[in-house]
Amino acid sequence: MADRKPDLKPVFHRLSDWAKAHQAWNLVDPRELRRDLNDVDPVLLSLALQALVNFGVLRRVYRAVAPSGVLADDDYDDPNQVPEWVRDRFNHYFLSSEGDIVPVFKPA
Amino acid sequence: MLAWADAFIHVGATFSRMQIPRLDDLLELVNEFCTMEQIKDLLRTGQDNKDVRLSAANKEELIYKNLRTALEVRAVSLDRLIEMVREAEENGHQRIYYHKVAPRIAETMTIEAVGPRLWGKNWKSKHQFPLFLSRSTDFTYADFRLLAPNKKPLDWVLKVYGEYVYEKATGFVEKKPETGRILREFEVKSKRLVLLARWNSPDLLEIRVPEDSSTKRVASWAEMMWTMLGAAINRTLVAPWDLSAIRKRMIARGPKYKNLYRPRDARMRSKHSNVSLETINPDGSLFDSEDDSQLVSQALSGQSECTYASIFWLAQKDGLPSEQIHTNIGQTSPNELIFTGQCGPREIDYVTDKLRFFGR
User: Fold this and answer.
1) In this model, does residue B134 exceed pLDDT 70?
2) Chain B residues with CB inside 8 Å of A71's CB?
3) Bridge-partner residues for A105, per DSSP?
4) What is the per-residue burial (b if ≥16 Cβ within 10 Å, else e) of A76-106?
5) Is B339 helix (H, G, I), strand (E, B) or coil?
6) Which 3 state secondary structure label does DSSP give B274?
7) CA distances, B64 to each of A52, A76, B58, B69, B274 (Å)
8) Does residue B16 carry a pLDDT above 90?
9) Which of B281, B328, B339 would you mutate first to test chain A, the one with the most A CBs within 10 A?
10) How far apart are CA A105 and CA A46, in angstroms?
11) Interface test mutation site (partner B, options A89, A96, A105, max chain B beta carbons within 10 A)
């Protein structure tokens, strides 16, 4: 991948290190990635994630963010599929239109 | 092409007393209750037939194209289809309210004793169970049967059908600038409600109702199930099974039983404050780091209670459960367990048995 996108090589390496340090994660939350890799240009980070999607390594899905800031449980292929009411981690329902819908990345 | 009524002739004895189901009704129920994985498992039973296809762009295509074709060419048995729907509508996406029954009362909880209390002496001839496709705005008894006659001969399930009518936004919005009004279009829809009472010998009565965004609605369905149980069980003689101590014990013992379950979110309450803990990693555990473990231990110390726990029961090598099961323990009531996803009857019993284990 680094050969096909040499400009993103350093970012791929950082992503690889991050994945090794987060083996219990079954998804990549770009918000966490930005927090952990705060010295990496966010534009390059986005481009690298998009490249991994294009290479078929990751797939993009969407999740609602609960009022407490953590990700709610269900995945959606399209942000328009997110229902009006979404359940938070404590089984309370919140209006998805009042919170954020964020892309997350899962193994393809 | 096979006529649908013709196909029904091949249904076995189990469902022979039901009214003839319309294929469209059945497929609608499949869409309502079954997961794609369950439907694919069913299709696999007829995979020898060249007309049976597993791949589909979405659930609708899988049901209304692949499954319909498989049924029409008789590659998939109607018995199995009905069994799949029955199992799906009775298990998962539910709240279960557990009640402890004293041994003296438990003795009177056999199917032979409960049936006559509900419907009189000749109830077997009066009621043509199962009423699989009953559609009614009233609540209707749909089934009363032994669950596993060979394994647990005393266990039974009583099923009630109802209908839930709701409004769903179509997405059509009309703005009327001249009046300053916005018109949003809603469609009136209905879905089958499945309420269950399950006698889990030797001492547990489970009231199972569908999970819903409205806790009031859920509570009203549980009340309805009690009403339907009416004469069979004197509610004042059974006590809610308080899971509070079990919840706290399970969170505290998380590290010890890390191969059995993963506690992900919890809410604790001390004399002065509430503490809520949620892992940032949705697939994480409250005990993923030393810092988190200490935080949980501190929050659980002293007289504090655990008022809510989100537990993932991990897949086991023996296949039970075959994949992780997510449960929430105690959102609105101390005897309440929520299954957030679809699962089978064995998985629900597995979780109940584990709660019994942690209750000892």
Assistant:
1) no
2) 282
3) A28, A60
4) beeeeebeeebbbbbbeebebeebebebbbe
5) strand
6) strand
7) 34, 22, 10, 8, 49
8) no
9) B281
10) 11
11) A89
Contact A90 B280 (CB under 8 A): no
What's the rounded mean pLDDT across residues B182-206?
A: 94
The DSSP secondary structure of A10-78, one letter per residue, reads HHHHHHHHHHHHTTT-SSB-HHHHHHHTTTS-HHHHHHHHHHHHHTTSEEEEEEEBPTTSSB-S--BSS
Nearest to B245 by CA among B358, B343, B338: B358
Grouping H, G, I as helix, E, B as strand and the rest as coil, residue B96 is: strand
Residue among B288, B279, B333 nearest B310 (CA): B279
Q: Are A70 and A89 in contact (CB under 8 A)?
A: yes
Q: What is the pLDDT of residue B330?
A: 87
d(CA B194, CA B87): 11
Between CA A73 and CA B270 the distance in angstroms is: 28
What is the interface size between A and B, counted as CB pairs within 8 Å?
46
| B331 to A90: CB separation less than 8 angstroms, yes or no | yes
Compare CB distances from B338 to A26, A32, A91 and report the shortest one's residue.
A91
Chain A residues in contact with B338 by the CB 8 A cut-off are 91
In tens, the pLDDT along B305-319 reads 999 999 999 999 999
Q: Which of A73, A57, A76, A56 is nearest to A65 (CA)?
A: A73
Entry pTM: 0.88
Helix (H, G, I), strand (E, B) or coil at B22: coil
Verify whether the Cβ–Cβ distance A89 to B280 is below 8 Å: no
CB-based contacts of B251, cutoff 8 Å, min separation 6: B263, B266, B286, B296, B300, B306, B309
User: For residue A76, what are its two tokens?
Assistant: 């959606």
What residue type is B263 in one-letter code?
Answer: P
| Identity of the residue numbered B108 | T
CB of B225 closer than 8 Å to CB of B209: yes
Q: What is the DSSP string of B233-256?
A: S-GGGEEE---HHHHHHHHHTTTT
Distance (Å, whole) CA B254 – CA B249: 8
Listed in sequence order, the residues at least 6 apart from A60 whose beta carbon sits closer than 8 Å to its beta carbon are A53, A103, A104, A105
